[in-house]
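agent> Task received from the user: take the single chain below, predict its 3D structure, and emit C-alpha cells. No templates, no multimer pairing.
agent> Plan: (1) validate residues, (2) run structure prediction, (3) serialize to C-alpha cells, (4) report one or two observations.
agent> Step 1 OK, no nonstandard residues flagged.
tool_call: predict_structure(input=
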Amino acid sequence: MGIEFLKRLPTPTEIKADYPVTQKVARVKAERDAMIRKVFTGESDKFIVIIGPCSADNEEAVCEYIDRLARVQEKVADKLILIPRIYTNKPRTTGEGYKGILHQPDPEKKPDLLHGLIALRKMHMHAVESSGLTAADEMLYPENWRYLDDILSYVAIGARSVENQQHRLVVSGMDIPAGMKNPTSGDFSVMLNSVVAAQVKQNFIYRNWEVETSGNPLAHTILRGAVNKHGNTIPNYHYEDLQLLLEKYNERDLQNPAVIVDANHSNSNKKYKEQIRIVQEVLHSRSLSPEIHNLVKGVMIESYLEEGSQKIGCANHVFGKSITDPCLGWDDSEKLIYTIAEKC
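)
tool_result: status=success, residues=344
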C-alpha cells in the first residue's frame, strides 16, 4: 500500500476532554465572537486588523507578541478589533519544508502529529488566558477544525484550498467569520463561488459521520493578490479591484458582503515592508466611497517580534523572528496599528 497507518490519533472530543477550555476562555470567546460578528453584519463600524506571524512556531514568542498586542488593543478599542494570527498549519506550495506546529512542535525535530495537536491547542488557550484576545487560524485540514472550534474567533481558507469542496462544506458548519481567499489565479468568481457554498446548508461525510450544516452567513472574501501564467505577482488591493469585487457581490444574493485585504503574499510580492503602504492605500480607498467603506471590513498583516525571517536551525537564532515568510517587526507594526486607528 502507498499509505502506511502509523498510529491512531485522539479525536477532537478526546483532546478537548484532556485539555478543556477554562471558564475564562469560554467567556472571552463568547464576548469576542459577538463583537466581531457585529462588524460583518454591519451593526458595528469597527475595523478589523488580523495581525501576527506567518506561522506560529514558538509558544513563548507567540504569546509575548500577543500580550503586546493586547496592550495596544486597549488603546484602540473604540476603533479597532485586533485579532492575532496564530497559524498552526503552514501550507507549502511543493509539500516540502516546515508545515507548522501541528506537524513539528519543535521545528528542528521530526514530525510528531500527536504532540502537535496538543501543542497547538495549548498555545491557543495560553494566548487567550494571557491576553484576553481570541485568535485566527488557517483551516488547512478541514477534518482538524473541531480541535479548535471552541477557541477560535476567525478562520481563513487559503488560496490553494478555496476551490476544495470539503473546505467549503466545513465552513458552512462554522458559527464564526470565515474568510475565503482568492485562488492563486486571482479569479473572483472562484472565490465568490466558495462563499456561496459556505453560506448555504450542506450535507456530506465528515469524520466518519453523515452531517448537515446550517450555512455560515459570515463567510466572506479575502483579497491576497494573484500570480499570472508567467509567475509574476498581480496585486488586487487597489480601488479598482475593490470596486470590481463590489460589483461581483451585487450580482449575487449573498449575506453580509465583506472583504478583508491581505497586505502581504502576492499583494506585496512578499516584500513585507510594503504592507505599511498597502494598508494605507486600502484605508484611503475606503474613504473615497461609502460602498467601499462598508465592504472593506479589515486588513490582514504578517508581523512578529522581530522583522524579516531566518532559517530553521540557524546558528544565531533570533527569538520572535519568523522561520517562514518575512514579517514586519513589532515597532513598525505598533505604529501601523495606531495609524489605522487614526484613519478609521
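agent> Step 4: summary for the user.
The two ends are 57 Å apart (CA to CA).
agent> Done.
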